[in-house]
Amino acid sequence: MNTGSDRGTNESAAGDTATETTAQSTAQTTAEVSAESAEETLHVSKAPAFIKARRTLHLSWQVGVFVVGLAVIAAGVAMLVLPGPGWVAIFAGLAIWATEFAWAHLVLRWTKRKVTEAAQKALDPKVRRRNIILTTTGLVIAGALIGFYLWKYGLVLPWDLKDQ
Predict the structure, then answer these.
(1) Closest listed residue to residue 73, CA positions, set 102, 34, 39, 107
(2) Candidate ranges 12-16, 19-23, 101-105; pick with highest mean pLDDT
(3) Which helix (H) or strand (E) holds 57?
(4) Which among 70, 79, 140, 149 is least buried, having the fewest CB atoms inside 10 angstroms?
């Protein structure tokens, strides 16, 4: 590998670097193609072999998996407004569905990719700075409104106000 310290003495440094770059890009392309072909393979059911052996039993298994996944997703949707880990339950239900259904597997993979992209974007220093500034501004505005309310009405709840 050329470190660049021998540029003046080695005339073929550019050629060596180009060869190394070509080899690296070829290896990356091969890895990407194999990863894509692995992703494009036919989705196989995770049901036990004795269940897959009979069509009616396998269909019953898929209905059961669908119902369980739907119940977990419904609980997750309820937990979005109630106390609890709503998004975790929704993703768990999707993972349950992904064990049997190819479309759910694709949706789960797309969701994982989007969550990873959002996490990387959130770690960007510019985005973090913007979020901190927006949060601080929102807290200052909320504090000013609360202060104005306390100055105007004191510690009286809004539904106990008399004509003032």
Answers:
(1) 107
(2) 101-105
(3) helix 55-81
(4) 140
